[in-house]
Amino acid sequence: MDSAIVLKALERERALLEEFIDLSEDQILFMEDRNFEAMSLFERRADLMIELTAIEATLGTWIDQIRTDPSITSEMMHELRAVSDEIVSMANRIVEIDEQTHTRLDMLKERARTQLQEIEQSA
Questions:
Q1: Residue 97 to residue 110: CA distance in whole angstroms
Q2: Three-state secondary structure readout of the chain
Q3: Which pTM value belongs to this model?
């Protein structure tokens, strides 16, 4: 297995995650403004998830091969680990953003439910 190919795939995964984070953060802003463009962000995020899932499945196999390859230099392993660590950190950030999104969605639902009840009571 060519470690340069694995590194390129990890870098692609990192770039996709950067875009995913940007979309996730934009989604929160749009939700707060009740901007329905947020729905298109859900679609773009779904597309990114498909690509991320495909890359992750391939990387899993490749990384298993690299771990046992004696021709991989320690410098390359260090670089692979560094990018991998960045990816883990980014994934954790996405989880945090998604938790914020769910909290805000719950607040919006509750607000809408309260408003609907007020309308029904006044009618």
A1: 20
A2: CCHHHHHHHHHHHHHHHHHHHHHHHHHHHHHHCCCCCHHHHHHHHHHHHHHHHHHHHHHHHHHHHHHCCCCCCHHHHHHHHHHHHHHHHHHHHHHHHHHHHHHHHHHHHHHHHHHHHHHHHHC
A3: 0.77
Tokens of 70: 């004696």
CA dist., res. 102 & res. 123, Å (int): 31
Counted residue by residue, the chain has a size of: 123
Assess contact for 90 and 12: CB atoms under 8 A.
Answer: no
Sequence ranges of the domains in the chain: 3-122
Q: Please say if the pLDDT value at position 39 is more than 80.
A: no
Rounded-to-integer distance, Cα 8 and Cα 52, Å: 14
Joined together, the tokens standing for residue 37 give: 């463009």
